Amino acid sequence: MKTTYWAMLLMLLPSMAYTQTTEKENDFSMSIQIRPRAEYRNGALVPRNEGEEPAGFINNRARLSMEYKRSDLQMKISAQHVGVWGQDPQIDKNGRFIMNEAWAKLNFGKGFFAQLGRQSLVYDDERILGGLDWNIAGRYHDALKLGYANPNNQLHLIFAFNQNDETKIGGTYYQQNGAQPYKNMQTFWYHYFSSYTPFDASLLFMNLGMETGDAATKESHTRYLQTMGTYITYKDNGWNVDGAFYYQMGKNLNAEKVSAFMASLQVAYAFASSSLEPTWTIVASADYLSGNSGGSDKYKAFNPLYGTHHKFYGAMDYFYASDFVSGYAPGLFDKRLGVLFRASDKVDMDLNYHHFSTAAKLSGLKKALGSEMDYQINWSVMKDVKLSAGYSIMRGTETMDVVKGGNHKSWQDWGWISVNINPRVLFVKW
C-alpha cells in the first residue's frame, strides 16, 4: 500500500506545481544517445610498420542526459558508459559509468550568470577549447564559469582548481597523470557580434598552471603557460572566411621558457542551386603551428591544448590527437583543399586533401611529412538517427617515419562506420 501511495503522489506532483502558478516556466527534458562505431585501423593515429596486421573493433557510447530549465536556473546531468564491444564480462560488477556533465547555471538577470560543475568548454571553432565529440568519451572540465551577455557581446571568465582527492595536510601537490592535465586554469573569453556587419570577433586569454613538483615528496611546484589570441569570421553572399592567431609564452612542464604561435586561415564558398539551397561548397585552408628544432633558449612548439584536433589536422589523427616520437616537436604546416556536396536535406558528403609538413627545420630531414585524403558521407536515416561512414589514406615520407614512427612504404589507411541514435524521449513543461 505504501508503494501505491508514493506512486499516486508522484503522479500528482506536476498538477500540484501547475496549480501554484498560471505560467508554465519549468522545463524538464531527457535524451538518450547510443553511438556505436566500427573501425578498421591500418595506420590510424600512428603509422604502421611493414608486416603489422590491421586492427578492428566496435566502440560504443551510451549516454543519458537530463536537463531542467526555468528563468533563473538551468541544470544538466549527463552520465555515460563508454567502451569496446566485448570488453566487459557478461556478469560485470564494476561497470565504467561516469558523469560527463553535471552542472548548474544561475541566471542573475540583466545578462549575468554563473555556471559551475562538470561541463564542456567549447569556444569559437574549437582549436583551443573544444568538446571533442568525435572521441567516444568526449572532453569535460570541472570549472566555474562567470559570464555576461547582451545582443552584441559575450564575456566569460573561467576558473578551475584540480586536486586528486580530499586532503587534510600536505600542501596542494597534484598528480596530473590519469587526471585533468592541469592543476589550475583561469580563462578570459570575449566575443563581439553585430547584425549590421558580416564580421564576428573573439579574444581569448588562458593561464594554465601545470604541476612539475616532486611526486615522491609531494612538493608542489606549479609552472604557468599563457595562451592568447583572436578568432575572426566573415560570412556574406556564400562566402565563409575565418582566421585565428594565438601566441604562447610562460613555461611548460619541463620548465622551459616558451615562445610559440599558431595561425590559421580558411576560405569557403557555397554555390547555390536554382532552389537557392547550397549544394556545393569549396573550401581551402592553411594551419601553421610553430615547432621546436632545438638550438634556442626558448621552446618554440605550439601546444593547441584542449581543442578538437580531429576536426582540423586530418581525420587519421596523426597530429596533436596523438604524440610525436619522443624528443620531437616539429610543429605542423597543414594545407587543405576540400569539397562538400549536399545531395539532399538528408544526405551530404565531403572530400578533403591535406598536405602536411613540419614547421621547424629538422637537421638532416626534409620538411614534407606526406599527404592524406579523407572522405565522409552522412545520411539522416530517420528522425534522431544518423548513419555516417568514412575512409582515409595517408602517404607518408621518410620524415614521417622519424617524427611519428612506422614505415612510409607501408600502405596506411583507415575506415569506419557509425550510427548515432539520439532522441529526446521526454519533455515536460509546467
As a percent range, the share of helical residues equals under 10%
Based on secondary structure, the structural category is mainly beta
Straight-line distance between termini: 28 Å
Overall pLDDT confidence: 92
Share of residues in strands: over 45%
Low-confidence stretches: 1-13, 15-21
Order of helices and strands: HEEEEEEEEEEEEEEEEEHEE
Q: Could you give the count of β-strands? A: 19
Major sheet description: 18 strands, antiparallel, barrel
The shape, in one word, is globular
Total number of helices: 2
From the alpha carbons, calculate the radius of gyration and give it in angstroms.
24 Å
Which helices and strands occur, and which strands form pairs?
Layout: H1 2-19, E1 27-42, E2 55-70, E3 73-84, E4 97-109, E5 112-119, E6 141-149, E7 153-161, E8 184-193, E9 199-211, E10 222-236, E11 239-251, E12 257-272, E13 278-289, E14 332-342, E15 347-357, E16 368-382, E17 385-396, H2 398-404, E18 412-421, E19 424-429
Antiparallel strand pairs: 1-2, 1-18, 1-19, 2-3, 3-4, 4-5, 5-6, 6-7, 7-8, 8-9, 9-10, 10-11, 11-12, 12-13, 13-14, 14-15, 15-16, 16-17, 17-18
